[in-house]
Each structure stands twice: as C-alpha cells, then as structure tokens.
Specification:
The chain has one domain (8-85). It is 35% helix and 31% strand. It is built from three helices and five strands. It has helices spanning 52-64, 66-74, 78-85; strands at residues 8-11, 15-16, 22-30, 33-39, 44-48. Strands 1, 2, 3, 4 and 5 form a five-stranded antiparallel sheet that branches. β2 (15-16) and β3 (22-30) form a beta hairpin. It is globular.
Length: 86
C-alpha cells in the first residue's frame, strides 16, 4: 500500500514587481518532487514529479490561500533570516 508522503511548503517574503504589485514565490517539496508557484496568481512555473492533477490542486491551494500566504510573507525578513544562518 502506498503511503502518502508529506509536503513541505516554503515561501519567500514579498517581492516587488515592475508594475508595483507584490508577489510571493512558493515551493512545494515532496521527497525529490517539487513545484514552484506564485501568489496571488496561483501559476505553477516549474515542477518535477507531480502529476497534472496534483499541479492543479497546488495551484488551487495557492489561489484559495493567497491572502493568508501574502500576510505571512509580510513577516519574512530575509536579511534577519540570512544573518541567523551565518
């Protein structure tokens, strides 16, 4: 019997775009599989190992939870996090 593997989701801080809007980059990982998406559009830009159906589900998740992900991304301080790793 195939046991479902756990996903790991990581996200960036807010990234300003040329048009003045801000996005968040999100990465889903499951073992060696990965998918990279963008909030708020839900667009999955890169992936490996996920089925089309799974990618559609991940895209839907990004769209449905976009506001929450954006709010959490506002709290990310890349410089502070980088300094902790040194």
């Amino acid at each position: 019997m195939n046991q479902p593997q756990e996903f790991c989701m990581t996200y960036s801080g807010l990234i300003p775009q040329k048009d003045g809007k801000k996005i968040v980059r999100v990465v889903f990982e499951r073992g060696k599989d990965y998918a990279e998406g963008i909030v708020p559009s839900g667009l999955i830009e890169k992936s490996s190992g996920f089925t089309k159906e799974e990618l559609q589900q991940l895209s839907g998740y990004l769209i449905q939870n976009g506001d929450d992900i954006l709010a959490k991304a506002k709290e990310v301080n890349p410089l502070r996090n980088w300094m902790k790793k040194k």
